[in-house]
């Protein structure tokens, strides 16, 4: 009978969340590197390169892969014969480990968890509580999976109660395009089938914890219906042409995972949850001999790539004009220099509330650009921690008012903009620029100074003023309202030409 000591368990949880903050799973990196080698879309290839370069930098520098260091998710399989030497509950021990990990002074992680989600939405300050799933199984060990799931991908989770005669493949192919690019492809799709609605969702989440092995499956061939389904979905989802960051290309998913469970004769519940470019999870066992030992990956698994900072057009944000903005074409690569304001959900809500009350704003946005970001706190000699973009569509409802009442000239974020935002951009001859989601540490190296400009009480959601040098972005919506997230996938779906367009 194994005795699992409280401190060993807490320390193992803490080390696991630190570990996955800066180490991608090696199987994911190998699959992403293979996708980079075969990618033919220059925009998608550039995005994948940034993700790979960022990943290696994080592995070497022990800093977060993504500024969204995730909500902590823990799966436990507890052996029936295991014995706990602990005074705390399992939930409290997990939370203690998460608290220790996210507050580590050498690699402080961003606290994103809010209490009272339908009310005050107050930050817990330490990313607790974790989401815990416990299963009691035979044996005397404890199996642990720790995962950090970012909001951009979690928000794209889907569920539908299909009729038993409905096609799962058809539903997936109809649904994936509606997810946009906020989940930062290329990633992994987890599909849960059967049981009850909540069981299907849990199966989808748990399926994402398995290694990337689709190419092994292709090589040996399917043996079960779920394996046949994986292969069919892998081919057909990639044939949609969505591509890296939604820019259009050959690889949208690196793998498709499927778990199923018996269900009611009248039911076919299906859930789909994506893992993003910041795929982060680690598995270990505790047998009573001490805390987990997590071996660092071999950096030889990472391709040796470098980013060419001279291939874009340099833009001076301090002097840029509307005429200059109007000359930019969709897909152009720009290198931003000068002063860049930041702001995301909470800041935009506060700003628009002030505008509605006729109050003067604390920041002058005239002819300025705003970056949708909530950075990680800096450590050591850093100016700012990892500072990749957040999903731009969440700011769509604020866009017209910000453009028309503040003099804002442009925005920087990740993924696509919705129809209302695109119309506002077109009507105001503004622009939307896209930075690569999943390249947060790489982006932070372009930030030379950072100061809080307003709303310091909002923490990571405060308005900052960054001074940037050669920050790489792509023109995603130009001043005429053309969006590369609409044109790119259409072009590449036509090029791939394997399946017809599935109507929404």
Number of helices: 15
Strand count, sense and barrel status of the largest sheet are: 5 strands, mixed, barrel
CATH level 3 topology of the largest domain: fumarase
Q: In one word, what is the shape? A: globular
Percent of residues in beta strands: 15-25%
Q: Number of domains in the coordinates?
A: 3
- Kindly state the percentage of residues in helix: 25-40%
Number of strands: 19
**How does CATH name the architecture of the largest domain?**
Alpha-Beta Barrel
How are the strands of the largest sheet arranged? 14-15-16-17-19
- How far is the N terminus from the C terminus? 55 Å
Low-confidence stretches: none
CATH class of the largest domain: Alpha Beta
Mean pLDDT across all amino acids: 95
Indicate the radius of gyration in whole angstroms.
Answer: 23 Å
CATH homologous group name of the largest domain: Fe-S hydro-lyase, tartrate dehydratase beta-type, catalytic domain
**What structural category characterises the helix and strand content?**
alpha/beta
């Amino acid at each position: 009978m194994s005795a699992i000591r409280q401190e060993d368990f807490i320390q193992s949880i803490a080390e696991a969340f630190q570990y996955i903050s800066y180490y991608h799973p090696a199987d994911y990196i190998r699959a992403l590197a293979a996708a980079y080698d075969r990618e033919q879309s220059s925009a998608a290839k550039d995005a994948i390169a940034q993700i790979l370069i960022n990943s290696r930098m994080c592995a070497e520098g022990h800093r977060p892969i993504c500024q969204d260091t995730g909500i902590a998710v823990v799966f436990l399989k507890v052996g029936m014969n295991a014995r706990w030497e602990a005074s705390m509950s399992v939930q409290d021990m997990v939370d203690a480990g998460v608290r220790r990990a996210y507050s580590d002074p050498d690699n402080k992680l961003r606290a994103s968890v809010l209490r009272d989600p339908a009310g005050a939405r107050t930050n817990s300050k330490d990313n607790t509580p974790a989401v815990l799933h416990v299963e009691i199984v035979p044996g005397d060990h404890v199996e642990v999976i720790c995962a950090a799931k970012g909001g951009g991908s979690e928000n794209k989770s889907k569920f539908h109660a299909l009729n038993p005669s409905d096609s799962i493949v058809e539903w997936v192919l109809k649904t994936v395009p509606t997810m946009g690019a906020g989940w930062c492809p290329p990633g992994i799709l987890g599909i849960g089938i059967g049981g009850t609605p909540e069981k299907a969702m849990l199966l989808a989440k748990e399926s994402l914890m398995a290694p990337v092995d689709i190419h092994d499956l292709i090589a040996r061939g399917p043996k079960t219906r779920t394996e046949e389904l994986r292969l069919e979905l892998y081919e057909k989802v990639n044939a949609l042409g969505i591509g890296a960051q939604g820019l259009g290309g050959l690889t949208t998913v690196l793998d498709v995972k499927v778990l199923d469970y018996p269900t009611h004769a009248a039911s076919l519940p299906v859930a789909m949850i994506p893992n993003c470019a910041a795929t982060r999870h680690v598995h270990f066992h505790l047998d009573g001999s001490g805390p987990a030992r997590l071996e660092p990956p071999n950096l030889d698994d990472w391709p040796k790539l470098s980013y060419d900072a001279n291939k874009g057009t340099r833009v001076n944000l301090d002097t840029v004009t509307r005429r200059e903005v109007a000359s930019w074409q969709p897909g152009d690569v720009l290198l931003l220099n000068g002063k860049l304001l930041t702001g995301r959900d909470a800041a935009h809500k506060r700003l628009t509330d002030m505008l509605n009350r006729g109050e003067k704003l604390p920041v002058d946005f005239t002819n300025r650009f705003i970056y949708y970001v909530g950075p990680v706190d800096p450590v050591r000699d850093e100016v700012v921690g990892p500072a990749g973009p957040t999903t731009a569509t969440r700011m769509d409802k604020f866009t017209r008012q910000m453009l028309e009442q503040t003099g804002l000239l442009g925005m920087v974020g990740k993924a696509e903009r919705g129809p209302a935002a695109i119309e506002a951009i077109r009507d105001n001859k503004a622009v939307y620029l896209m930075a690569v989601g999943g390249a947060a540490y790489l982006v932070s190296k372009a930030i030379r100074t950072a100061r809080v400009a307003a709303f310091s009480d909002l923490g990571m959601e405060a308005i900052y003023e960054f001074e940037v040098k050669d920050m790489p972005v792509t023109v995603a919506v130009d001043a005429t309202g053309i969006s590369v997230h609409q044109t790119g996938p259409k072009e590449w779906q036509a090029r791939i030409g394997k399946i017809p367009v599935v109507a929404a």
